[in-house]
């Protein structure tokens, strides 16, 4: 068996999901006829406190669909520096929606609301209109954003009639870490995107949520983007189990992440980024002089452990449904052996 | 039970597909780790005679991904008049790829190759470059395009170094009607898109096929468009059955279509468009003076028969896996009753 | 001296224009401070019967700015087949505005309004919204469109709340040919684009006209497209003379075109397209077997006559301010000599 | 007479420019026939040390044309924070070119080359390709970038085969401030944009420069963007004088800027941003508690002095051809009066 720490996207559908998928009643969702998709969308809307939901093929799809639906060609979209939309969505917003992305800093205690306020564009022939603000919680960096900070940002946005989209790919992780309900986070924006295929273990899919009017418009844009699926109830069946049975399980991943962080610190040269250890992601540095990236990746693979290479000089290990505390012990022992062999 | 003639997209996954989906080994396909997706892509490439294949969420996604991957911003894309890309993909090519669509006529005996040749843009500062030609076979109109005509178009395109994309949403229907192998049709272009969720009954998905180089580039553009799925092997498992077990079944749909056409002609005022009766789609007219569209749609629905309203003054009935010849008899008797009641 | 029949864009500014340009009071038009630009825009608005006008760098700029300002990303724009926007603007609408172009036929007696009505998109998830209809008068083909036909199209568009843009690059030529006021043509749409640098002889520029609200929005989009000029009053000064002194002169060009057509028919193998001889453009065919395109172009150039090569098998000779009836005699004699030498 | 400190774009064409414009030989530049445009492009290419040049309607046009010509749809373009392309071009790059903008910090001593290096995108399915890096010199902030810093950035870019575009709207101001030739700055990139209508006093236009191959491609894209002008030699004639006679005059503007800075500091609450006082732009703060923005703007206007409101809390006064040192004295006395009246 492989221990896969690259991401929580690697999670496998659970046995009960497989049964549900095999038995799901389905219909053609482009016609609105799939009962299982409809059930999932209804369930998600209730759970996240939004009027309506829309099943989409991926998290990137959900974020980009939100951008396309909120904005007009030529708008400026404000996003946090280093967020997924800017860094890991292949530059899609400019291609698909013709919008300019500009970044605001997100600090350890959240977004500087005053600075953000200064970034909103006034009425000037040289300026694009500010069409959307995006917040991410939990952030790609592993940190959460305090609810009060999100509230302050949303208040600012509403005062200027600028919509807010929340990238809540790991909203349930964020809610757990912050000790709030997911719907309290979702309430801080006009739309929110939620992933089913990460910690929740569904094989495929995300949900975009918002008002009925917004989701109606998004449904058409989803078709434009090629995301109108047919008998998608197969996937939705697993999503329903994800939302109803798997949310409470995320606590394990968070505990395992803290355990992994502690054990990594047993390795002298490992420096864990403790200030970003909020959810199921452990970021740390390990100098190339101690062990090179390629040696570590290849060495662990020989021990049946898959990790990603560094990004911006940091390793990221992600705990997930397929990783137990015993697995973590195995990873640490393997790393110790490798480090001692090469240093 | 509903008899659904709106499209062959309404097909349900078969029992063996449900078993296969429940048991499919899966992995994270964004990392290239899903064995079932990999198996489907390999199988499809062999079957269609292309170097490589890529699983995508829908037919619209596959066509638009092909356009994005073949072209550069500002190119002109030549497509047949009334084709799916122009008429039924929400204007996506302009939004997603920034390309101008221009149409060439497709006549009953195929594309006028000489006229098409005159439409290729020369070197002039006022002209966009011709970046792509799209052919559709079978066409959305129900007609097939002769293989020799496709060969002539491809020869022209190759002589000018212009790539060809084939919208083969119903390529296996076309092959059956033309009495050729699907790969012979696929050979008339640089890329081809094939749907799994229509007559082949898989719940979700299409395949885009082409050279390894093209598919590598398309894989990245698929991520940009939000079509990078995770444990997509669930869906691919059904697709494999579609390609291996369901292709030969299409003959039934074609026979049923001809049977449906014959029986429709029993209704005096029904005029079947016989010259487009090549595959599983029956187009016909029925004057509003005899029975209005809304009356017919609602009246049949009461009899558990779902049909679409007219488009451009024509009704389209599509035979599919869920429609037997007995069902067709029921449809015809219901229509006769309705027509006699209202006229 | 060269006789230049390639286009009426080759016209030179007149001596009085040069004086006016040398003496024009100017200011920074991005700030709205250029009195001469303001005067031109006011004058044009009055002349064409629109609320407001905007000076733009070119006819292509004006048309594309209208498209950008009327539409939203993803709209469908209906244009006449073979119109300038489709054929000679480098595919710009898809790039700049993300809109899909679809063509309606324009016949000798104008647009088939019933067919056009069927092309307007209904409410369907597969359809882009119809965002704009463009008419061209005079057409690039040399023909005018009857005013009554334009009225019928505008009535249709207004009944569906779809805006109309008129490409009036040669609107004064059209008005002359139709025996109406230019403002009567301009009244058949929500916006109109008018060229100053063709028959009117201004060196640079066009005007986009519409409601105040539309022009305000267009002014910002003009900046986005890089068309915010500074001391543009220099050019506007010539434009004012174009509008006030040069419109009546177009009659000469029309007479010369008819004279040229008559004389071309003295050449046996010349076939003038008489049904399109409405304005200052003479289209004709001359078989390659009689004289090849390259021979004709080069041979005339030796005689100081500049012509364009064929497009779609037709030659186009355009009369303009720099072409007198004596010049036409010289052209015909030169052609006769060349044809007799080579045939 | 108005004293206009809003920008150096407000400069008027000089008397010799007006004479030159009145007498310029012109032709249709879309056909390449305008001798004066050709002369200007040749002259500029020599002066800036590039193979070829292209006359464009504005600085925004030139920058956006460079972006369109260097990049492909979906690329990421790296620009300095607070640069003109990001802040003052209406978000055009996303609309016109479909590219994502990402910012690198530009500090007082220039660009952090190491950090910039880390921003170049590697080969990953989540990443857009880095398609272009833009440098600005002089910067919109009033500062220049040291030549050695530009060289280091260009070396990095060349090592990764990434093109560099230089926004040299005020390249001659930068050259003067740095004590180098403008062509030495232009040599630090593959393309450069130079404005004629600012300190150089031409009424309209900029120049985009690069290799012959690049400019050929840009010429076609210029047509797409609507910037193909006809008898543009009228404007080019003024541009020639700008390049040949007005460059040396910029020294006056720089001296006046320093004089203005000194005098502003006589006003107690005025705080001049001395570290950005490199060219003809003086940035300073003046607290709202001392005098409000609207009071200052309106009060100076009554004294025939035009200034812009604050942007990001700063006033910007720009010296230019129409502003003498006596004018500056008048401005300062007027400000003193206003400040004392309201505080
Ligand atoms: Ca998963
Ligand atoms: Ca440690
Ligand atoms: Ca199906
Ligand atoms: Ca002219
Ligand atoms: Ca004749
Ligand atoms: Ca100026």
TrEMBL record, chains A, B, C, D:
Entry keywords, A to Z: Lyase, Pyridoxal phosphate
Pfam families, sorted: Beta_elim_lyase
CDD domains: TA_like
GO molecular function, one term: lyase activity
Transmembrane segments: none
UniProt entry tagged with the keyword Lyase: yes
EC top class named in words: lyase
Domain Aromatic amino acid beta-eliminating lyase/threonine aldolase stretches: 4-284
EC numbers on record: 4.1.2.48
InterPro entries reported in the protein's UniProt record: ArAA_b-elim_lyase/Thr_aldolase, Low_specificity_L-TA-like, PyrdxlP-dep_Trfase, PyrdxlP-dep_Trfase_major, PyrdxlP-dep_Trfase_small
Obligatory cofactor(s): pyridoxal 5'-phosphate
Family statement drawn from the similarity comment of this UniProt entry: Belongs to the threonine aldolase family.
Record's protein name: Low-specificity L-threonine aldolase
Taxon lineage: Bacteria, Bacillati, Bacillota, Clostridia, Eubacteriales
């Amino acid at each position: 068996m492989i221990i896969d720490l690259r991401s929580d996207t690697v999670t496998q559908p659970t046995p009960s999901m497989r049964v549900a998928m095999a038995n799901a009643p389905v219909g053609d969702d482009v016609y609105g006829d799939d009962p299982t998709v409809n059930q999932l969308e209804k369930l998600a809307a209730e759970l996240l406190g939004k009027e309506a939901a829309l099943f989409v093929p991926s998290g990137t799809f959900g974020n980009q669909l939100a951008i396309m639906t909120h904005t007009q060609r030529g708008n400026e979209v404000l996003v946090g520096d280093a967020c997924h939309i800017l860094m890991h969505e292949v530059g899609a917003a400019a291609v698909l929606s013709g919008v300019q992305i500009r970044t605001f800093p997100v600090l350890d205690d959240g977004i500087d609301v005053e600075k953000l306020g200064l970034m909103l564009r006034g009425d000037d022939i040289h300026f694009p209109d500010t069409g959307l603000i995006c917040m991410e919680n939990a952030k790609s960096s592993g940190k959460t954003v305090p609810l009060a900070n999100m509230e302050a940002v949303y208040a600012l946005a509403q005062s200027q009639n600028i919509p807010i989209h929340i990238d809540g790919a790991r909203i349930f992780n964020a809610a757990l870490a912050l000790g709030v309900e997911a719907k309290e986070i979702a309430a801080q924006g006009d739309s929110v995107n939620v992933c089913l295929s990460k910690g929740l273990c569904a094989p495929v899919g995300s949900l975009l949520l918002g008002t009925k009017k917004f989701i109606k418009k998004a449904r058409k844009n989803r078709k434009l983007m090629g995301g109108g699926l047919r008998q998608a109830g197969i996937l939705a069946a697993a999503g329903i189990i994800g939302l109803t049975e798997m949310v409470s399980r995320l606590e394990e991943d968070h505990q395992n992440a803290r355990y992994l962080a502690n054990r990594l610190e047993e390795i002298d040269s490992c420096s864990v980024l403790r200030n970003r250890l909020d959810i199921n992601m452990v970021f740390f540095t390990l100098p190339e002089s101690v062990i090179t990236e390629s040696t570590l990746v290849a060495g662990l693979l020989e021990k049946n452990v898959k990790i990603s290479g560094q990004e911006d000089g940091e390793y990221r290990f992600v705990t997930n449904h397929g990783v137990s505390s015993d697995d973590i012990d195995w990873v640490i022992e393997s790393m110790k052996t490798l480090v001692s062999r090469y240093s």
